[in-house]
């Protein structure tokens, strides 16, 4: 998290033990609040405050420099499109059939990128990846239609477009063995057989 600060102020509760209190109240006042109770309350308060501000996911981006012959520009652009890359510029080298393409590729999409690029371009393309910057994803990972306009546009949530931020969060949670909030069946329809029975 970036640009985040929690201001924690100390609060001392006055002990109000009265003479007529029962025995369990005296024991709880004697020991005070337990550390676990305070840590849980503060953790939930901080988490709620962060979620209330509509957080956005940030992902690392590689600067990618590709060199490819002109006949393999199409397959190279297909590989870049599958990897959610953003092309910055392309220029042709003077006196040679090579193109140089500059693009930003998300780090999460870069695993196996060079192998796929070589496979689709028959080994004619080469890529150089350098960590460039961090980029915020514009999508809300916790988006659920709530207002009338959103419900009218997206329905009950089944027709919401695929959320890239939510996919990345679910992939990390799956990798770490944490529970993932996903439906097994998205849009169920009755199965029918296409073969005609004679």
TrEMBL record:
Q: Where is the Elongation factor EFG domain?
A: 56-145
* Record InterPro entries: EFG_III/V, EFG_V-like
Q: Which SUPFAM superfamilies match?
A: EF-G C-terminal domain-like (SSF54980)
- Source superkingdom: Eukaryota
Q: What is this protein called?
A: Elongation factor EFG domain-containing protein
Source species: Hibiscus sabdariffa (roselle)
């Amino acid at each position: 998290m970036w640009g985040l600060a929690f201001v924690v102020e100390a609060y001392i509760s006055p002990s109000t033990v009265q003479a007529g209190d029962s025995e369990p109240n005296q024991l709880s006042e004697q020991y005070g609040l337990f550390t676990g109770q305070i840590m849980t309350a503060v953790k939930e308060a901080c988490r709620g405050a962060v979620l209330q501000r509509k957080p956005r996911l940030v992902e690392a981006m590689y600067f990618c420099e590709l060199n490819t012959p002109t006949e393999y520009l199409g397959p190279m652009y297909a590989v870049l499109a599958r990897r959610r890359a953003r092309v910055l510029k392309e220029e042709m080298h003077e006196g040679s059939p090579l193109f140089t393409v500059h693009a930003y590729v998300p780090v999460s999409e870069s695993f196996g990128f060079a192998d796929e690029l070589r496979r689709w371009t028959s080994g004619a393309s080469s890529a150089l990846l350098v960590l460039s910057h961090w980029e915020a994803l514009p999508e809300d990972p916790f988006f659920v239609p709530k207002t009338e306009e959103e419900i009218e546009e997206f329905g009950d949530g089944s027709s919401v477009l695929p959320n890239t931020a939510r996919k990345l969060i679910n992939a990390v949670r799956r990798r770490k063995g944490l529970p993932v909030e996903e439906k097994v069946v998205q849009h169920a329809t009755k199965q029918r057989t296409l073969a005609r029975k004679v």
